[in-house]
Every structure is written in structure tokens, then in C-alpha cells.
Design a protein that fits this description.
Chain lengths: 477, 152
């Protein structure tokens, strides 16, 4: 991200004028490249400050791209929106909105806490596992929205500080989310926009390293808090007294939800060879679950319930993506990403053949993504990197360095691992982190930015180092 | 007729820096639904009522989610509930008061007064527009009682 901004800045300050050929149609006859570059830098800058709602900023930036003539017309701006990402996110959000009403997520958390006799350290490990697994199957933000409230309930009953638990849940939501195409927004973007990558590719290429990172991250957490976490017998008895069965509010709906979730997962795995994209699967699943959920209701109840469910979709995230796509595609169509890609290609100068280019690119992409994702939200970073890297591959091929599919994939895996794991570097590294911080604040135990940074940044570096070794051994030698 | 004519003037209040136990006493002894919380100058700064009192007795985490949470699985016994209430008893009531309660003004029209009572399930404080000072309170019976009087 920083590299991207720096490259944009040089482009805006000096390099822009050379691209005079692009300036057809924009406002006052200004250079399209300049307009797009300034909109990009300013909107990303404002998003980074976290002072304004990011969806609003992205929508304004996207609107300016159209209004100021970076696009020839509205249709070309709409063409930049990745509807597969939008559909996948929205569909999954609908499914979760219905499923959470069944109480299954509370049930899971309580069941796992009781399995370890309500001992605090055991609960931390179990909730970490639940968080990681759910994050792999659902969006990270959704996962923490489901798990953090019940975690706070458990720590309150245990009369212990929630910080170690919340810290672990932030880390493992990002780590678990790395495992699948649907687990984390960077993966959704990569899976959507790189045509040759499917749901199963993520299972085969990324998922195997996730348990290793999980264990490696759990060790330092144990060293930091393992022995310090203690609760009184009385307090543990309170948690053991929880009746997880009573958390389930609607068994019929639970069965329907599990049926649709299973169908959707099967759709992700089996659909691709048949040409069925994830958004179709998720949207269809969402609609099917809405239908099943509403079958027994009266017409008035039906419309109110559907209305309510749609209301629970996280529209801020959806609109943020829409705005972001229009901004990034505007930048791309103005030719700015060619320049950025040129910088990426320039980085491989002097490399000997496609193998060495792949190695250099993979490792650089991994570490730049990791550090950038720790500093800013990883979604805008990855949204920019994908078209940039695609252009870089084309430019490399034109220079006679043709990366084959496996080599290109190695770079994509590096982007995924770097961006997803990098989100753990700071409290603002990923959306889920901020959601947890928000919960902690409302519970009266705010998470300090610096304290989290001190604990999490070294662990993030360690996880990226593990990922680097993995990518190197598996794809680069 | 406006709000000023049917309200009860100079209502019982609690100062924000008084302990929570004082506010609870007022609610219990008078069977009030809520009591206005004011500062030293008599400016209204919040409201503390039965609703806020009940929220102190269940785990705080229950209020983390938007919808009414299901806590059917929690089996806290009587002592646990009591412990939560006792823990907070000496804290200043200002910490627990609802900061943005629905308020009325002396010149608020009667229909709006009735609608607000209907929506809030509570007695409503009447606050002077310019100074923010509490001047009265309106209960259901303040208005319904008057309406039940023989028509002229």
C-alpha cells in the first residue's frame, strides 16, 4: 500500500504529463491519469484516517471518477464492479443473518467451553479453534460478531479480564479466514478476479499451512497468558451450569440453516467444474434459506421477516466494495495501473528467467502485502494489487518473461497469505479487529492500540515468515 | 392547553453525583418508573429508571448484540444476580443514567405529549428550552386523569 501510494505520488507529481494520449473526455480537458491518481490518493488517504465512514468515502471517490470524466460513461464504471464478490458477500450475509437467530453459534461456544471444564486457558484454546473454523467458513467480521458477545459473557461469569481471549480471537479469525476462498475478503477478491483460481485451489494450496500457523501462534500466547489465566471454582461452576441446549431457540430453523449451509459449501466445492461461480451459489443459498425460513409464516410476517433479514446485511461493507471497485477500475482505465505494474516489473530487473522472477515477485508481494495490510485495511490494498499484478504479468510476457499458470499462482498465494495474515499486525489491520475493539470498548475494557501492536505485530511477522518458508519450499524451489 | 398546565412541577430528582443506591431508593419508595438525573444547577443530564436498574442485574455481555439476546442457557443463581447489583451500589448514578431520554418542553402540544407517553412507556421529564433546567414531569395519569374529568 505504501509502495503503491509512493508510486502514485511520483506519478502525480512528475510522471503524469507524459501520458498525454489518455486525455480524451475528462473535465476541462485535464489529464485523466492525473484526475484518477488524485482521487485515488485522496480517497485512500481519507479511508486510512478512519475518521469518516469508509463506505461513504469510497462511494464519493467512485462518484468523482465518473463525474470528472475518468470514465467515458456510467456503463464503463459499472463494468468495473466485481459482482461476483458483491454477490458472494451479500448471499453469505443473508445466510448468516438467518442462521444466527437459531442460537447455534452461542451453542458452539458454550459447548466448547464446557468440554474443557470451564478452565480459562482451555476455553481460550477452544474459542480460538471455533473462531478459526468459523472464520474459514464465514467472513471474519461475521465470525467475531457471533463469537465475541458470548466470549464476553463467559469471561464476565469467570470474573477474568477478556483481553487475552479477544486478542486470540482477533488473531485466529484472520488466520482461519486465510484458509478458504470465502474466509477473508482478500481471498474473495482473488478468487473472484483471478479466473484460474477456484474454491478448491484455496483448500489445496492455502489451507494446509493454516494449522501450522495456528499452532505456532498459540505457543507465544500460552507463554504470555497460559499460566496467568485463573478463575475461582465458583466462577467455573457458573459456566459449567450453562445449559447450551437452551441456547438453541428454533430447532426447525436450525435444521433448515444447516441444510442450506451444507448445500452452499457443496456448491462451492463442486460448482466450479460446472461453471457455477461462488456468487450464484451464495445468492441462491440465501434466497433458498429465506424461502424455507418463511414457509410457515403469514404473508405480513413473511414480508416483515424478509425485510428484517435484509436489514442485517452489512451494507457498509457492500457499498464500500462497490465504491472501491469503481475507484480502482477508474485508475486502471486511466492507465495508472500500467505505471504501477511497471514499477512491479522493474523490481524483477536482472532476474534470470521466469523462476527467479516468480521467486522475487512472490516474496516481495508477500512482505509488502503483510506490512501494508497491518497499516491499512487489506481490502483496498488487495483490490488495487490484483489488477496491478495482472498487468505486470502481461508486461513481463511482453518482455519475453512468460510466467506459467503455476508461477502466477505462487504470486497470488503470496498476496493472499501476506494480506490475510498481515491483517493481524495492528488493531486497524483488518475490519474484524476493529469490530472486536468496538465490543471491548462497550464492555468497559478497551483494547489499547499500542498494547495490541506490541503483542500482535511480532506474531504477525512470525506467521508471515512461516508462510514465506511454505511458499518457497512448495512453489519456488 | 400545553404540557406546562398538566405537568407535575418540581418533581423528585437525583443528583448525578449521588450514589446509585439513592436513586434505587427513590424508585422503590415512590414506586416510580424513573427519576430524572440533574446536575448541581438543576439542569437535566439524564434519567435513571427500572429499565436501567434491571440491566445492571444481568451480565453486561447481554447487551452486546442488537436484538433482545437469548440468555435462557445462563443459570446464574440468586446470589449471582444480587452480587452484580451490590457491586455497583456506591457508584455515582450519573454513570448509569440514560443520557438521551425523550424529553418534553413546557410548550409541547398535548397530542405530542400523549404520543410520547405511548412510545416511551415511561414518565417524561419537562425541560426548559433555553436553560435545559428540569421544570416538571408528566405521567400517564397527569393527562389521562384530566381527560376523565367531566367534559364541560
Amino acid at each position: 500500500m505504501i509502495a503503491a501510494l509512493a508510486a502514485m505520488a511520483t506519478m502525480v507529481s512528475g510522471g503524469g504529463g507524459e501520458e498525454g494520449g489518455h486525455s480524451i473526455g475528462p473535465i476541462f480537458g485535464w489529464d485523466k491519469l492525473w484526475i484518477a491518481g488524485v482521487i485515488f490518493v485522496v480517497t485512500y488517504g481519507i479511508i486510512m484516517t478512519e475518521k469518516y465512514n469508509r463506505a461513504v468515502v469510497a462511494m464519493l471517490g467512485g462518484g468523482l471518477m465518473v463525474l470528472l470524466g475518468v470514465y467515458p460513461n456510467q456503463a464503463s464504471a459499472v463494468a468495473g464492479i466485481d459482482w461476483n464478490t458483491i454477490g458472494l458477500l451479500t448471499g453469505m450475509m443473508v445466510i448468516v443473518a438467518v442462521t444466527r437467530r437459531t442460537g447455534i453459534f452461542q451453542y458452539l461456544a458454550i459447548w466448547s467451553a464446557k468440554k474443557v471444564k470451564a478452565r480459562p486457558w482451555g476455553i481460550l484454546v477452544m474459542l480460538s479453534i471455533v473462531t478459526a473454523v468459523l472464520s474459514a467458513l464465514l467472513d471474519n467480521v461475521t465470525t467475531v460478531l457471533l463469537i465475541v458477545p458470548v466470549t464476553l459473557l463467559i469471561t464476565e461469569e469467570l470474573e477474568i479480564k477478556p483481553y487475552p481471549f479477544l486478542f486470540a480471537e482477533i488473531l485466529f479469525s484472520n488466520i482461519g479466514g486465510t484458509a478458504t476462498l470465502i474466509g477473508d475478503p482478500p481471498n474473495i477478491l482473488i478468487g473472484s478476479q483471478v479466473q484460474t483460481i477456484t474454491f478448491n485451489h484455496f483448500l489445496i494450496h492455502i489451507a494446509p499451512i493454516v494449522p501450522v500457523v495456528f499452532i505456532a501462534t498459540m505457543l507465544p500466547i500460552w507463554i504470555m497468558w497460559g499460566k496467568k489465566l485463573k478463575a475461582s471454582d465458583e466462577a467455573m461452576a457458573r459456566v459449567m451450569n450453562f445449559k447450551e441446549r437452551d441456547a438453541i431457540t428454533n430447532v426447525t430453523l436450525l435444521k433448515k440453516s444447516m441444510f442450506v449451509l451444507a448445500l452452499v459449501l457443496a456448491g462451492f466445492i463442486l460448482g466450479h467444474p460446472m461453471g457455477i461461480e461462488p456468487a450464484t451459489v451464495a445468492m441462491f443459498g440465501g434466497a433458498l434459506l429465506l424461502l424455507l425460513d418463511n414457509l410457515p409464516r403469514t404473508p405480513e410476517e413473511k414480508s416483515e421477516n424478509v425485510h428484517h433479514t435484509f436489514g442485517e446485511v452489512e451494507w457498509v461493507t457492500i457499498f464500500f466494495f462497490v465504491g472501491l471497485f469503481v475507484i480502482v477500475h477508474g485508475l486502471e482505465s486511466a492507465g495508472a495501473l500500467d505505471i504501477l505494474a511497471g514499477k512491479v516489473v522493474g523490481f524483477t530487473d536482472g532476474a534470470d528467467g521466469p523462476e527467479e522472477v516468480t521467486t522475487r515477485l512472490s516474496i516481495a508481494v508477500m512482505w509488502v502485502s503483510a506490512v501494508a495490510s497491518a497499516i491499512v485495511d487489506n481490502i483496498p490494498f488487495v483490490a488495487t494489487m490484483i489488477p496491478t499484478l495482472k498487468t505486470a504479468f502481461t508486461q513481463l510476457a511482453a518482455n519475453g518473461v512468460d510466467l506459467d499458470l503455476a508461477q502466477q499462482h505462487a504470486v497470488w498465494w503470496s498476496l493472499s497469505l501476506g494480506a490475510c495474515l498481515g491483517g493481524n499486525g495492528s488493531l486497524i489491520g483488518a475490519s474484524a479487529n476493529l469490530i472486536v475493539a468496538g465490543f471491548a470498548e462497550r464492555a468497559g475494557t478497551p483494547i489499547s492500540f499500542v498494547k495490541f501492536l506490541k503483542h500482535a505485530f511480532p506474531l504477525m511477522l512470525m506467521s508471515v515468515a512461516i508462510a514465506t518458508v511454505y511458499v518457497y519450499l512448495r512453489y519456488l524451489v | 392547553m400545553t404540557c406546562a398546565e398538566i405537568m407535575t412541577a418540581d418533581p423528585t430528582t437525583v443528583r448525578a453525583d449521588e450514589p446509585l443506591s439513592r436513586a434505587i431508593e427513590i424508585l422503590r419508595d415512590n414506586r416510580f418508573r424513573s427519576v430524572p438525573v440533574v446536575d448541581a444547577q438543576g439542569v437535566m443530564v439524564g434519567q435513571f429508571g427500572i429499565h436501567g436498574l434491571l440491566s445492571l442485574i444481568v451480565p453486561k455481555a447481554a447487551f452486546m448484540e442488537g436484538d433482545t439476546p437469548n440468555l435462557a442457557f445462563v443459570n446464574d443463581d440468586f446470589d449471582d444476580l444480587q452480587r452484580r447489583l451490590v457491586e455497583e451500589r456506591d457508584q455515582p448514578v450519573g454513570r448509569f443514567s440514560k443520557k438521551d431520554p425523550v424529553i418534553l418542553h413546557p410548550d409541547t402540544a398535548l397530542t405530542h405529549v400523549v404520543l410520547s407517553l405511548y412510545n416511551c412507556h415511561n414518565n417524561l421529564p419537562v425541560v426548559e428550552r433555553k436553560t435545559g433546567k428540569l421544570v416538571g414531569i408528566v405521567s400517564y395519569w397527569d393527562i389521562v386523569g384530566r381527560l376523565l374529568e367531566d367534559p364541560k
